[in-house]
Hints:
By secondary structure, the chain is an alpha+beta fold. It has five domains: 159 residues, CATH 2.40.50.140; 202 residues, D-amino Acid Aminotransferase, Chain A, domain 1 (2-Layer Sandwich), CATH 3.30.470; 70 residues, Orthogonal Bundle (DNA polymerase, domain 1); 78 residues, DNA polymerase, domain 1 (Orthogonal Bundle), CATH 1.10.150; 86 residues, 3-Layer(aba) Sandwich (Rossmann fold). The chain has 25 helices and 25 strands. The strands form six sheets. Strands 13, 14, 15, 16, 17, 18 and 19 form a seven-stranded antiparallel sheet that branches. Strands 2-12-11-3-10 form a five-stranded mixed sheet. The chain is globular and about 65 Å long. The chain starts with a helix and ends with a helix.
Amino acid sequence: MADIDIDRLVAQLEAYNTAYRSGAPLVEDATYDRLVERLRALDPQHPFVQSVEPEKFTGRTQVRHPLPMLSTEKAYTEDQLARFVQRVEKEASAIGLAEVQFEATPKLDGLAGRDDGEVLASRGNGLVGFDISNAWAKGVVPVGGRGQGLGEITVVQSYFDAHLAELFEHPRNMVVGVISSDTLNPHARQALEAGMVRFVPYNQLPRWQGPAAELLAQIETISRQLAAQTDYPMDGVVVSACEAALRERMGATSHHYRWQIAVKRKGDTAVTTVENIQWQVGRTGNVTPVLEVAPVALSGATIRRVTAHHAGMVEKLRIGPGARIEVIRSGEVIPKLERVLTPSQQVALPENCPSCGSALTFLKSDDQDKELFLKCHNPACPAQIEQSISHWFRILGNADWFGIKTIRRIVAGGYDSLEKIYDMTEGDFVALGFGPVQSRNLAEALRLSRTQPVEDWRFLAALGIADLGVGDSRKLLQHIPIEALNDFDQASIEKIHGFGEKTSKRIVDGLGQIRGTLTHLLALGFQLERTVLLSESVPTTSPIAGKNLVFTGKMVHGNREQMQGEARRLGANVQTAVSGTTDFLICGEKVGATKRNKAEALGVRILSEADYLQMIAERREGE
């Protein structure tokens, strides 16, 4: 029954999401968020809630992002922000960084996009977006000029309040309509003609910068000050670690960057009673509890399921049928357990995996000693296989049609590995009960996933190896070719900056587990775009080797991503924001004053694009 509920719910969410992103929402935001939370409660590992929500613009050309446009981790309490700061400072200490500088910027509530000076691309699914460059012709104003990188399309808040609030439910709905529709309504046209619809690059936003102690002590004041300086829709502030080396070390998950967090208002709470515990099996075998509770109204939603985080919490806090608990709901986040008011007299942890029946073990997390997990170690566990295959197609990002419902049917039919799935023919899909059109689409999707170009680091991250998300996969492949990974031991990986003893061991163990799969998939001839090896690409005489660079403005030599890639090949560390560690600020055309003024105040050397290229060329001529 649960699978049927999940399938129906996902179909409903996909329909609502499509309508919303086309500018014609079918339900209110609160209703949509409530349904997303219900899906998270039913299946916390479902791809729909583990990745950037899909976004499509019919008839637009797809654009692959040079780096994933990820979502953001959320903090709703001061304790959650403090834990984030502690994690960052721990990583900083490991690389000898005495004090971490943080920056805070407004969290805009608009339509995310990326402008490289040539193409304006929507976020899409985070890996592949859509060309929405016709926004410029419609009258969208690029704040600070073209080529400013990541940002959001939004409308000036004061204008919206004065002229549009009674016509549109939310500023974002109006913006989506502008971007997705060929025919504009007169109100949207007036807003465009008035220059009130804008692409606001993140680097053009006001920002606060300072140490951790000041951030934690003044976060409310900082948030109010940033809001006072921002005349665009906001739903919080984004806090980031400034240092490029620290960002590189911390990397990212498939969902968010570990060095960044969004600080939002704490949600409302309510009291309810636990009726049952449902145990969910994830991709890595962790078995996590979801509390089924007596229905309770909370922030306009009826809550029936609440996450309890991990098995150790269930045991320690004595959570079970009859326990009275306080739950919290914050924005779009699944309702969470806030505290236990009355413990249960019936506390029981499962001894066997709810998916495959194998005996479970009780393990302590390597990352946080307070977290204790139940784990299924059976490599043939259907739930783990399904989630692993789903992870592959989601991260690879170049094969449609493989949703979790389809994957379940394929796995149940005996095709329980990527090796078997990539050997499937159209006839095999028909034999499993898929219709002729869907079978043809599935077979074609497999072919396209092998023949369309895909970055080697994305390919590696899609294999789901512990500690090898997209960021760390890219870092690893800067030192070791993907075909040679199986030949490297733990000590070799430990020598790479940013990979410690425990991480290196988990990576080697993970590679050992998928050795056959990796070899088989590489033999299928995937069209991998190779990461340049630093050992082969960094001239010892490079004038920017080891230097921290920030690029800003529209570049003539190439788009910004191309110039950043070239700088990395010359040994530079590319930063996204000017800080005390920045060595050079390279300015293209139409540069805003914010970065230049900050660079001048910090004593950072400012170069024009021509001066930068001349500096590199002179050194090359002398080699």
